[in-house]
């Protein structure tokens, strides 16, 4: 199994324009991925990264996504929350045939509505999603976000189970709990530090892409929940919180503006989820460095 050629997931996926369509390419393939400098997992990944590439489009864009299967078993992709035609929904033996090893399948649809979405395998998903087959899909409103954030960051939350160097799908319902937890494919202290200036507006887009709930807590500042599952929350209904529970499949967009400097922690408030092999600190934790 090849070692990943890149160190960060969610890198924005380039596209070319053909006949008025934005054309993207995704390749499902096995890869060895480091969640920590000294801990690697056997991942199934899109384009050799975990999470898979960030697909970005503008509402109303016609998109074509060519998905090649370089895995040892079939797969499909579901475009979670996006309003696609039924035959593009990615459900095997219901809306499409399985993409067999070595085959390529083309998905075509109009990107709508604007919001935070994600894509993931919908075949043997208990395993395939758990070992890496997911990524983010952001559909921007025409003219951009009304709130005009200075920093706009996607955070995908996942779990892993690594025992004696072997990677298993984290399946808490079967007693196979996760022992490593990642934000954008990395466990703390190897998670990204987000550098922010005092007075900058920050938008965080949480995506629950694993199988567990994660109450994400921000130190230092309350935030407003401005969108849920791709739907804008009316300003009159936006509530201030410092913890939001992100369930499997859910998306929450939150915004805050730091008013003082410091290194502020963002983490899951289930203590086990901030450990690496039961050792704290680790897992679902990152630093918001306000300068």
Question: Could you give the topology of this structure?
Answer:
Elements: E1 16-18, E2 21-36, E3 39-46, E4 52-58, E5 62-69, E6 77-80, E7 104-110, E8 115-121, H1 125-128, E9 134-140, E10 151-163, E11 166-168, E12 180-183, E13 194-196, E14 202-208, E15 214-218, E16 223-228, E17 231-232, E18 240-241, E19 243-246, E20 251-256, E21 262-268, E22 285-290
Parallel strand pairs: 2-5, 4-9, 10-14, 13-22
Antiparallel strand pairs: 1-2, 2-3, 5-7, 6-8, 8-9, 10-11, 10-12, 14-20, 15-19, 15-21, 16-17, 16-18, 16-20, 21-22
Short description:
By secondary structure, the protein is mainly β. Helix content is 1%, strand content 46%.
- In CATH terms, the superfamily of the largest domain is Cupredoxins -  blue copper proteins
Task: Classify the secondary structure makeup into a structural class.
Answer: mainly beta
CATH architecture of the largest domain: Sandwich
**What is the residue-averaged pLDDT?**
96
Helix content class: under 10%
Largest sheet: 8 strands, mixed
Q: Please tell me how large the radius of gyration is.
A: 18 Å
CATH domain class name of the largest domain:
Mainly Beta
Per the CATH scheme, the topology name of the largest domain is: Immunoglobulin-like
Task: Give a description of the structure.
The chain is built from 1 helix and 22 strands. The termini are far apart. The mean pLDDT is 96. The chain has one helix at 125-128, and strands at residues 16-18, 21-36, 39-46, 52-58, 62-69, 77-80, 104-110, 115-121, 134-140, 151-163, 166-168, 180-183, 194-196, 202-208, 214-218, 223-228, 231-232, 240-241, 243-246, 251-256, 262-268, 285-290. With 291 residues, the protein is mostly beta strands. The protein folds into 2 domains: 16-140, Cupredoxins -  blue copper proteins (Immunoglobulin-like, Sandwich); 151-290, Cupredoxins -  blue copper proteins (Immunoglobulin-like, Sandwich).
């Amino acid at each position: 199994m090849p070692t990943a050629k890149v160190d960060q997931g969610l890198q924005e996926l380039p596209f070319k324009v053909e006949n008025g369509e934005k054309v993207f390419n995704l390749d499902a393939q096995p890869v060895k991925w480091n969640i920590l400098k000294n801990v690697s997992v056997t991942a199934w990944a899109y384009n050799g990264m975990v999470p898979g590439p960030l697909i970005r489009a503008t509402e109303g864009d016609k998109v074509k996504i060519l998905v090649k299967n370089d895995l040892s078993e079939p797969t499909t992709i579901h475009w979670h929350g996006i309003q696609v035609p039924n035959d593009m929904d990615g459900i095997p033996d219901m809306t499409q045939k399985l993409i067999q090893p070595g085959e390529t399948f083309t998905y075509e649809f109009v990107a709508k509505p604007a919001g935070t979405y994600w894509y993931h395998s919908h075949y043997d998903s208990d395993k395939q999603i758990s070992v890496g087959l997911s990524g983010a899909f952001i559909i921007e409103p025409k003219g951009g976000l009304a709130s005009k954030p200075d920093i706009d960051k996607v955070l995908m939350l996942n779990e892993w189970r690594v025992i004696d160097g072997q990677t298993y799908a984290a399946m808490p319902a079967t007693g196979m709990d996760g022992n490593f937890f990642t934000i954008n494919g990395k466990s703390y202290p190897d998670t990204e530090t987000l550098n922010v200036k005092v007075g900058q507006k920050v938008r965080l887009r949480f995506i629950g892409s694993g199988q567990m709930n994660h109450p994400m807590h921000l130190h230092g500042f309350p935030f407003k929940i401005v969108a849920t599952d791709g739907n804008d929350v009316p300003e009159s209904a936006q509530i201030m919180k410092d913890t939001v529970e992100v369930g499997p499949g859910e998306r929450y967009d939150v915004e805050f503006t730091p008013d003082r400097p410091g290194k502020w922690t963002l983490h899951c408030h289930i203590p086990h989820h901030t450990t690496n092999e039961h050792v704290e600190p680790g897992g679902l934790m990152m630093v918001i460095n306000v300068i």
